[in-house]
Amino acid sequence: MKKRIPTLGLFCILISAPSFAETGYTLDPKLSNVTFATIKKQFVVEPASIKPLSGGLTKEGQFSILLDLKTVNTGVSIRDQRLNELYFESMTFPEVKISGKVDPSMLSGNPKNTTIETEVTLHGVTKTIDFPVMVVPSEGFVMVNSTSTIIVNGADFGISTENLNKLSATVGGLAISDKVPLNFNLLFDR
């Protein structure tokens, strides 16, 4: 019994938005998203998303993103509630923090593919994840999009099998994967 859960997103050193606005770019939460899918019974895929709360990207390439787990949206409110309460324990661990650095040369010129090493903190555990991305710079913004799906395992972040079993029990004991496919589209405005 396993569960695919969104662990990631991207970049978070947690510097305030005004600080990023003065030295680079601020994440536009309305035009950014992190998507994932839960998988049960080995083949039933249930798409979901998490809206980024805040973030930024400096001219030097430092970036950070903060995701609010309470914004998990599967299209089914009871599923959202169960993911938050039983699996993520979002009352104790409400945020996902992602941070890292991209080569500053990526912030100008033509779009480029690269792999960005990030520090992801979820459920109180920090892990390094490499994200394959396309960086699309423009005069007033920078877009960063995943170029392939990243598979994230909740157990790697200390989310226990017990949490997964509690979630599974709410759907009749169906097997749920603890691995999730994750993608993202981020827009940083100047």
TrEMBL record:
<dbReference type="InterPro" id="IPR036761">
    <property type="entry name" value="TTHA0802/YceI-like_sf"/>
</dbReference>
<dbReference type="InterPro" id="IPR007372">
    <property type="entry name" value="Lipid/polyisoprenoid-bd_YceI"/>
</dbReference>
<feature type="domain" description="Lipid/polyisoprenoid-binding YceI-like">
    <location>
        <begin position="24"/>
        <end position="189"/>
    </location>
</feature>
<keyword id="KW-0732">Signal</keyword>
<protein>
    <recommendedName>
        <fullName>Lipid/polyisoprenoid-binding YceI-like domain-containing protein</fullName>
    </recommendedName>
</protein>
<dbReference type="Pfam" id="PF04264">
    <property type="entry name" value="YceI"/>
</dbReference>
<feature type="signal peptide">
    <location>
        <begin position="1"/>
        <end position="21"/>
    </location>
</feature>
